[in-house]
Prior knowledge:
It comes from Auriscalpium vulgare. By secondary structure, the protein is of the alpha+beta class.
Amino acid sequence: KNPRGRLPPGPKPLPLLGNIFDLPRKEQWRTFSEWGHKYGPISYASALGKSFVVLNDVHTAVEMLDKKSAVYSDRPVLMMAGELVGWRDTLPFTRYGERLKETRKYLHGAMGTRSQIEGMHGLFEAETRAFLRHVLKRPEKVAECIRETAGSVILQLTYGYKPKEGKDDLVDLVEVTMTQFAEVVQPNVFLVDLIPPLQYVPLWFPGAGWKKKAEFYQQTLQQTAAAPMEFVKQQMAKGTARPSLVSNLLEKKNDRKDVADQDNTIKWAAAAMYGGACFFTTVSAIYSLFLAMTIYPNVQRKAQAEIDTVVGGDRLPSFSDRGSLLYVDAVVSEVFRWGALAPLGLPHTSIEDDIHEGYFIPKGSVILTNVKGMLHDEKVYADPWTFKPERFIATEERPAELDPRTCCFGFGRRICPGLNLADATVWASVAMSLAIFDIGRKVIDNVEIVPEALYGDEIISHPLPFPCTIKSRSKSAEALILSE
Ligand code: HEM
């Protein structure tokens, strides 16, 4: 028994090893949901001397991570991805402290307010129109078109850099870096994550191939952060820079402080924009829309009927219509809920001991939020696995169900700084895609294929590739995007 208080309930630990065999390796959210049913909203496990606290409901996560954010806003140390490859320099993996505050301030200054996001509406609309044109030409490559568009939006906002259509060196470099990231961030794959002293093994040591890999990936990451920053500096020197997050920050830079240090902070703040957090989540949200529309044709028809009534057929929906397109808005919310793009959010850690609801939470505990479980909790969402935007529209018989934004963007001082941007880009994709396209089921040998809603098991989880057809709704719909 712990002298400081009772630990939260959880699976029974083994001597020395703790719960090493209880901690799931795959689809962790599923096991964590079972713990939620068995042990309640806070459960506890330990392994190799580390404490893990799993939160299974929104209320508890808000009470701990929002209301006690000074205690719960650190991140765990990731040996391979963070320390050796260098991802700790990017915001999602930055430890709690001054650097975190400064970087978040930079990002908040660039995309934290309504008027800043409104300033980006033109870009979102133009890029979404280009996206629709690309999909019309290559409907079977919709996933690729989504990635290209997300990359283009983020690179323009961050660096004023418009990638070349087709093949672009910077986009390619970013993709390589992100693939390397996905490999090194997986838990329990690299031994050094379990046995940290292995980091001191020299490069020449037999079996230290993983260390050479870390060094190589580190160079790629450094180059990916530095190259676009150099691009902006060169454009600024020539006087041809387009306004962007980086050009603004470089102009406003406070020269009283160490300039090199500030350049470094700006470089990594910018890298956080197109790093995993922005890119993969947006891509997954938009791909989830296409998946949901393939499975649920009635939802699609309802959204299209609303667009036809409010907007008509002779123009595309724009942000000025958002307030009148209630059902479309509900589709956006349902994409965030049903898709649960970040199934466990990102882990927080506590910087001091705490007592919460009578339970002792030791300093350094890794706090895992079961966001996917929260978004599919049948106590909160009726029929949670069905894509049903109506749930977010109150009727006389029942109130609207809980807005998924209360948890899908995370909590406290680590809450997603891109949430307004994400909401706006996803809205544009939903409204404009449904105005122009009919997304339908593939027919093979006279059999209609209804895809299953299957998602990958990564930190940011994507729908697995699925068959669908995408056709323009009419010649006049086509003309609206081709006339550009
Ligand atoms: C499309 C939907 C998106 C979802 C569902 C999402 C979700 C999340 C979640 C769950 C976290 C972790 C919060 C926590 O630790 O409690 C996070 C962090 C973060 N997100 Fe997003 N995100 C999205 C889009 C974006 C976009 C578009 C950007 C960039 C423009 C972005 C940038 C970030 C960054 C930089 C962090 C790390 C913040 C920190 O560690 O302090 N995200 N996001």
